[in-house]
Automatic annotation (TrEMBL):
Residues 87-279 form the Tail specific protease domain. GO terms for molecular function: serine-type peptidase activity. This is Tail specific protease domain-containing protein. GO terms for biological process: proteolysis. Pfam families: Peptidase_S41 (PF03572). InterPro entries: ClpP/crotonase-like_dom_sf (IPR029045), Tail-specific_protease (IPR005151). PANTHER family: INTERPHOTORECEPTOR RETINOID-BINDING PROTEIN, RETINOL-BINDING PROTEIN 3. SMART domains: TSPc.
């Protein structure tokens, strides 16, 4: 009877996932349930690992965490002994794309649409976000388009929430690890730089809204009463860390989860559910009509 799984097989990858879940998963009961399901579904599976196997494992684990990702790579490297942390993207790459600020458009009806496609590190993103927010000033309403936003830095989420919440520092969320909790607060932006209370705001979401972008939409909806327009998001509320699991497979594995302090909940599994459901392609027009109607009443 073999005591160790054969290298390069599905059994080896499952064993590595189970070990890391036991080490990292922030709420052990959820991690243990995912580990049991993996063992039961793939016991003795000696298929060589390929991208299809990675998708099968991901699909199963997504019942407990939508943020788990497995990437099968062409090149080999030694598995990690400890989580290496995230590699910082070069500042120049962030500046080239204006830190995800893809467009600011003033529609003929006076509604400003601010499209943000990523949430880069706050110290790099803040100047671009603040400049974009200044272009919204005086609009009949504002639409924050997160339909293509794959997430990023929680500090940038707090920075954008600061624009809406304004002068009072506010405890937004707790990120709970196994051994600690990190609080996220807004800074208390001056009233002169905050979004005017007279400017109604809506958020656009869809299947491309992921991770920290979901956090931004959820906090705005639940805490600020901002209507979400479009389709449900993907439902990934865990914070993940990169780990090389085997010589050819790299994973993003849960190490913390988010709790919104206003509700005590998050969006894991369900996604952020829109207040006004519509095809994401139609969401800008639907959101503009919603805001103009609210302004009229």
């Amino acid at each position: 009877m073999r005591s160790e799984p054969v290298p390069g097989t599905t059994s080896e990858l499952v064993a590595a996932l189970v070990r890391w879940f036991d080490r990292l998963w922030p709420d052990p009961d959820r991690g243990a349930a995912a580990a049991v399901a993996l063992r039961e579904a793939f016991a003795g599976d000696d298929r060589p690992v390929d991208p299809l196997v990675c998708r099968q494992l991901e699909t199963l684990v997504h019942r407990w965490s939508r943020h788990v990702e497995l990437v099968h790579e062409d090149t080999e490297a030694a598995p990690d002994r400890d989580p290496p942390g995230w590699t910082r993207e070069p500042d120049a790459a962030v500046h080239r794309r204006a830190s995800g600020v893809a467009a600011v458009v003033r529609r003929p009806d006076g509604i400003a649409v601010l499209r943000i496609d990523g949430l880069d590190a706050a110290h790099l993103a803040a100047p671009y976000l603040d400049a974009a927010a200044d272009l919204v000033r005086g609009a009949a309403g504002a639409v924050l388009d997160l339909r293509r936003n794959g997430g990023g830095d929680p500090a940038t989420v707090a920075h954008l929430l600061d624009w809406v919440i304004g002068p009072v520092p506010t405890h937004i969320s707790d990120v709970r690890y196994r051994d600690r909790t990190r609080q996220w607060w807004t800074a208390g932006r001056s009233a002169a730089r905050a979004l005017s209370p007279e400017t109604p705001l809506a958020v656009l979401t869809g299947p491309g809204t992921y991770s920290s972008a979901e956090a931004l939409a959820f906090h705005l909806q639940q805490r600020c009463g901002v209507p979400v327009v479009g389709a449900p998001t993907r439902g990934a509320a865990d914070h993940v860390t990169p780990v090389r699991l085997t010589r050819r497979v790299r994973g993003l594995l849960p190490e913390a989860f988010v709790v919104d302090t206003a509700t005590g909940r998050n969006w894991e599994g369900t996604g952020v559910l829109p207040d006004v459901g519509t095809d994401p392609d139609d969401a800008p027009d639907v959101a503009a009509a919603t805001l103009l109607d609210r302004r009229a009443h």
